[in-house]
Specification:
This protein has 9 helices and 2 strands, in the order αααααββαααα. It is mainly alpha-helical and 192 residues long. The chain has a single domain, classed as Globin-like, CATH 1.10.490. It has a two-stranded antiparallel sheet with strand order 1-2. The longest helix is centred in the C-terminal third of the chain and has 23 residues. The radius of gyration is 18 Å and the shape is globular. About 5% of the residues have low confidence.
């Protein structure tokens, strides 16, 4: 039997959108539990993952240039219009690296994907656009997509290197990570 999906609700209701994506990807509570279990292994190396991601962002002028704009982060104003002020370990980049670390911790440890968490996933997408009230911040979607794909790749590579997880659990963990980032991608896309 064909399930009816309301297109208006897909675009206007985060819970409805998540439920549809979950059904389509077969993302279940088992996947959430696997992500939670995985956090034990991944959390200690999140700083390494974050550094790897930021080194990748700094390796292309087109992604690095987003760090040269004036922007405000929750009351803190950073001015990066002078390219010489932005270095891999400057205050502005450390702040952003800290935000990515928090994000990775949250998505791996969230036990219940309630409406508050779905709003957080949506907020993560929205904050990268001018829709948050900061016209100087708008990361083109192609770079967001590349970033999500790269983060997923780094985490999957990390999973494969964990010695004390059997093949079956690694397989399930990789599937769960893949589903998670496809859902996150959709929660970015709605703001573009």
């Amino acid at each position: 039997m064909t399930e009816n999906i309301n297109n208006f609700c897909l675009d206007s209701n985060l819970r409805y959108r998540f439920e549809y994506l979950s059904k389509f990807f077969d993302f279940t509570n088992d996947d959430i539990k696997i992500l939670n279990e995985l956090s034990t292994y991944v959390q200690p190396i999140i700083p390494v993952i974050v550094d790897t991601v930021y080194r990748k962002l700094f390796s292309f002028d087109i992604t690095k240039q987003y760090f040269f704009h004036n922007y405000s982060c929750f009351g803190t104003f950073f001015s990066s219009t002078n390219n010489t002020n932005v270095s891999f370990n400057c205050e502005e980049i450390e702040y952003r690296k800290n935000m990515l670390s928090k994000y990775l911790n949250i998505i791996l440890t969230q036990e219940e994907w309630n409406d508050s968490f779905l709003r957080y996933l949506s907020f993560v997408g929205q904050v990268h656009t001018h829709k948050m009230g900061t016209p100087t911040i708008h990361v083109d979607y192609i770079h967001v997509l590349a970033l999500i794909g790269f983060i997923e790749h780094v985490i999957i590579d990390t999973i494969w290197k964990i010695d004390n997880i059997d093949y079956q659990r690694k397989h399930r963990a990789i599937f769960a990570i893949n589903k998670l980032f496809w859902i996150q991608n959709e929660f970015f896309k709605i703001h573009y």
